[in-house]
Amino acid sequence: MPSELSATALEDLRTLLRFDTTNPPGNEGPAAAFVAARLADAGLEPVTLESDGRPNVVARVAGDGSGGGPLLLAGHLDVVPVDRDQWDHDPFGAEIHDGYLFGRGAIDMKYMVVHCMTAISELARTGKRPTRDVIFAAVSDEEEGCRHGSRFLVEQHPDLVRADYMLGEFGGFSLDVKGVRYYPIQVAEKGACQFRLTATGAPGHGSVPHDDNALVKLAGAIHALGKTRLPMHRCRAVEAFLVAMAAAQAAPDRWVLPLLANPALAPLILDKLVADRGLAATLAANLSNTVSPTGATAGKKINVIPGQASALFDGRLLPGQTAASFLAEVRAVIGDGFEVEVINEFEGRENTQVAGDPLYEAICANVKRTDPSGVPIPYMITGFTDAQYFGRLGARCFGYAPVRYPVEDQIRFNTLVHGHNERIHVDGFRWGVDAFVDLVLGFVGVK
Ligand SMILES: [Zn+2]
Predict the structure, then answer these.
(1) Which CATH number fits domain 4-187+349-443: 3.40.50.2300, 3.40.630.10, 3.40.50.150, 3.30.1370.10?
(2) How many angstroms separate the alpha carbon of residue 74 from the centre of ligand 1?
(3) Quick one: which of 69, 131, 216, 343 has the fewest CB in 10 Å?
(4) What is the DSSP string of 316-365?
(5) What's the CA-to-centroid distance between 79 and ligand 1, angstroms?
(6) What's the predicted TM-score (pTM) here?
(7) Does the active-site annotation cover 95?
(8) Ligand 1 mean position to 394 CA, how many Å?
């Protein structure tokens, strides 16, 4: 039975969903004020730090330090834009239909903001001293690159958010695969190298085609990069994911899944054995650096052959890969003769040796306690999160925010992230709140 506490958490989530924090511009102020007020209700003394008018709420419960350095709970308040026409219900109405609470941010990631807020408030209400400090940061601006949120806190107020551990997105959502219910625990995330590629050619009159057309050269590069799978690289987190997932499956998946970690066999398996193409694409993004063409510009007049043409590419790097190693892979596909301008780059991150890590083990134990049939598995996300910045202060970062979806609804959590009709299962959310509070209070010795 979900607790009374989780009923209050549900109302808090509905309130948060009604604040339109679409980023850009974000406008997180009212949502942040609500979070600060709820923390104050629990006796906490939250501080609000602004970057260019964008608020970040930070609260702390002091511990005695016997368990180690602080545990940081982190969530972002902003959400991505909506395509209103595509929604069945008001994306900022927090309506409940057929057991689901609809709203932009329901899963990315206001529900976890509520998990964190509820856990630290509950901790404060016990009046007991935890074995380590617990910090909660509700930040702005994650969806546009973290500049006014986690990055601002890390660069301008590091003492407020420095921690041994961070718990944030993405993980903890139930993932049903062939009769097995997994709970992924995020232990790694990819880095990025986003760049502009420019081709130069000879300008000319559109009535006289020639073979030095910048647009044609660029089109060749776009096509080649869009169609080529970059080389596969072994990555510990991905191998651990494949092995753990396989161990709970029956044959032949039990034997085939781990073979994906072998760069010599993976292409064959992805192309011939994985019938679900969406799944194949997700698996492939876990095995190599990737690059997606995302925009192109060339030409101003219909009768002029342009002298230059450029395209934008979103490149993503496996942990351990660098922008230089990635761009060498790109050049091997497109050849020379292009100018490359890197717009954004950072490396991926990966927790080495998660088995035996106290927080990782506490999460696994929490899964077993709260859903005895559940199987915890480590995993990497192909995007990036606030952990990119909080991790720079030395925190070991994990993604875990439990939520359960009924298996019969066949909802893939990942497809709801940034998708239309984003929604969270009401009972699954309430179960998750209780599980998360149990995890946090247990980890810091207050139960
Ligand atoms: Zn998010």
Answers:
(1) 3.40.630.10
(2) 11
(3) 343
(4) EE-TT--HHHHHHHHHHHH-SSEEEEEEEEE--EE-S--TT-HHHHHHHH
(5) 7
(6) 0.92
(7) no
(8) 21
